[in-house]
Amino acid sequence: MRNKFSLIHKITALVMLTAMLCPVSVFGKTIGQNDKAKSLTEDQKILHVLNRLGFGARPGDVEKVKAIGIAKYIEQQLNPAAISDATADAKIKNLGVLKMSNEELFAKYPNPVAVLQVVAQNNGLDRQELQAIRPNNQNQNKDEKDPNQMSEADRQKYQQQVQELYKKYDLGRPQQISQQLAASRILRAVYSERQLNEVMVDFWTNHFNVYANKAATRWFLPEYDRDVIRPNALGNFKDLLLATAKSPAMLFYLDNFESVSPNANKDLAVNQNRAQQMMRNPQMRQRIKDRYGMTDAQLDQRVRQMNNPQRQQPRGINENYAREIMELHTLGVDGGYTQKDIQEIARAFTGWTIVDARGYRRAFTTMSTGETNKRTERIMNQLGLPSDTPSGTFYFNERWHDKGEKTILGQKVNEGGVKDGLKVIDILVNHPSTAKFIARKLAVKFVSDNPSEALVTRVAEAFTKSKGDIKTTLRALFSDEEFFAAENYRAKIKTPFELTVSALRTLGADTNGGQIQSLLAKMGEQLYGYQAPTGYPDTAEDWVNTGALLERMNFAVALAANQIPGTRVDLKKFEATDKAKILDSAIAAVLEGEVNPNTKTILLKQIEQPLPQTKLDADLADENDMENPQMMNPQAGGLNRRQQVRLLPPSGNDEVFKVVGLILGSPDFQRQ
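RE: above sequence
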């Protein structure tokens, strides 16, 4: 059930929506396209830096930047390794998934299908019977007799065995991975002193987007954040691009882990014929049975499985990653590539795959029996890898690779093996379209939704001359005259993530990053929840509408009223006997004293109105549905099944949290 505001607050939302779409006001003057605005004051420049290079000012931040100077602060932020981050580190220390490898995650939070397979194997069930164990697969027509239908008593028996496995091996549920990772993103953004690094982590996470709810991708995301995005967020773009290309998260999300040269199918057919001939040899059969402890029936069943073309034959070349690495990661949609280039790049990346991509082997090993360990050994032998190769890791399968010469963007690629893909990355990084595309995205992120072509060109030159050094590129952007231009001050609309974090920071909130995720999702930005490879958008037109603003106001009131479990704010410093004094005090603290006269007029009227009536529940996408391709964000394709997340009753001075909530929901706070 959705939170509902009173009619007066819906009207207010419409008024404030109009204000958000109007030009921003500086020094009480509206800046239009033909106006020559005055230069920003020093304090406004500091606020601009804190809002763009970070997630907004905490109490005392403006004074700290003023003490060391803007230039020195920017340089410090460009070198995060030199900044102590003890507070943020302490906040995330108990989030265990952040330190775990993909293999460890598969072991601790196993794929539910793998757990079912263990139960099925322990009971000698076939594939059809395995499917029947699932609670959702019960026969809907109770009166219809199906001779192959599993009895309810047997189903419950097997489901009980599933629960016993979770208890016996102290296993967790996969949704905990996403929840802990999302909490860490929120906590780091709120508490980290390395604000620019966190902003760039958010930027690159969307640029190289991976959707958590596509099958096994969620198991790969902690490593993706820890070992791919974070170490390279302010490093070199080529290193970042290569790290994403080899990441199991990206390989799985864009299906490249299944991309195979057509010639591999021919080789497999030859190998299968040889295997069939070997199985007719009594001595060979006996050696295999002795080695794996198999009966004749088990061996024959295994051979049938190996010879099943739907199960065993590679699917062929997949072009998804080849398309997105050019369209979204490097050149841009107008970067000058053709469909032939996509096909050739796809050939170059064949064989880039993942060991035990869904974690079944790792789960079988965790809940090991003699037969499951033999199964593990068989799987790894088929891959030509040692049996102790970690699940969920990148490896290059030479047998799957297209060994022919490729021509990509006019250049010949015939390096051989994995080097074909490395050559492609080198070509793309050094292409002039990549410099322009990355420069434009950074300019949109840090300057305005419509940066000038001159600015984009200057930033692209810095990218090219530095060979893709991200720090050098950003330094050129932040030192450009357009960065501090008055027309760009408070000209961008915060994304829901930016709004959430900035609100927590400005109020000095204490949060565990947990249940606040539900309200972030309701505002349209569930972390790792964007299904399309584009990632969440970064312009006002994508976020400003009446429904979105209502959800933002809902969040603002819930935060100020201490209704969000695990998150607390102390607003006692705003208490006063006069409502107008409460308003002035809150404007001074939350908006640094800068408020549009029209906004203040609306706020003065609203503080005399009754408090908004909200119901104590909110929605969050049900993460138990592991294979559901839909997501909660309406922008990305519909609504998921939902679970209820209850809010707490309001607490604190009602006049104070009403005023603070209205200010947080105002267009002035929505801007950065």
